[in-house]
Amino acid sequence: VSKLLDLSRPVESGMPVYPGDLSPQVEVCASHDVQGWGANSLHLGEHAGTHLDAPFHLIPDGQTVEQIPLARLTGQALAVDVSHRWPGQAVEVEDLDGVDLSAGDALILRTGAGERADFEAALAQAPGLSEGAAAWLVERGVRLVGTDAPSIDLSFDIDPGLLAHRQLLGAGVPVVENLVNLERLMELVRGRRFTLHTFPLRITGGSGSPVRAVAELPNV
Ligand SMILES: [Zn+2]
């Protein structure tokens, strides 16, 4: 039996989000005492918490979230530790070329941001992919790239060009941000391949969506 590991942040009122995004609210709209059932309404942006960026997020004629083929959103994956690039350094090709990436694999970057309680510090200091490293991953046929940082790029204050986003999304490679539990993931997989599921909501015209990111670990 394979083991499932949740790589998603809880969705809750006041969860930290990227500057400028709507602050999420989970609001009770029916209660067992009053209506006789429980239900909440969600007020949140497409990029709240653990979420996927569709190509359209930065590419005007790129795929919107419901147009991404399902096969892009599930499959084999590898994880690499890049936390030595903390704080605020770019992740370069030399940090990735030890990874045995095959075309069609997803790659997860563990920056260490997911284990830090201070989201503001993660925004300012998390390592981000360099443009060259993003282009290199595209050449290798990467299926999807994930990170525990708030952005796949370096902090907007360090580099406002969003060049890693542009390289990946421009090649039709979706990005997943704000993953958690990557330290645990790395301990469990120890360099082996695992299966990664990152299905977004089927939002018509969506630029992205919250995802329930789940790693399915190889048998141990
Ligand atoms: Zn995003």
The general outline is globular
Task: Outline the low-pLDDT stretches.
Answer: none
pLDDT averaged over residues: 96
Structural class: alpha/beta
Instruction: Count the E strands.
Output: 12
Distance between the termini: 9 Å
Main pleated-sheet profile = 7 strands, mixed, barrel
Strand content: 25-35%
Order of SSEs: EEEEEEHEHEHEHEHEE
Task: Describe the 3D structure.
The protein has helices at 93-96, 119-125, 131-139, 163-170, 182-189; strands spanning 3-6, 25-30, 39-43, 51-53, 74-81, 90-91, 106-110, 128-129, 144-147, 175-177, 194-200, 208-217. The chain is built from 5 helices and 12 strands. Helix 3 (131-139) runs parallel beside helix 4. It has a 7-stranded mixed barrel. The chain has a two-stranded antiparallel sheet with strand order 2-3. A two-stranded parallel ribbon has the order 6-8. With 220 residues, the chain is α/β, with parallel strands linked by helices. Helices cover 16% and strands 27% of the residues. Bound molecules: zinc ion (ZN).
Helices and strands in order:
Elements: E1 3-6, E2 25-30, E3 39-43, E4 51-53, E5 74-81, E6 90-91, H1 93-96, E7 106-110, H2 119-125, E8 128-129, H3 131-139, E9 144-147, H4 163-170, E10 175-177, H5 182-189, E11 194-200, E12 208-217
Parallel strand pairs: 5-7, 6-8, 7-9, 9-10
Antiparallel strand pairs: 1-12, 2-3, 4-10, 4-12, 5-11, 11-12
Helix pairs in contact: 3-4
The structure holds zinc ion (ZN).
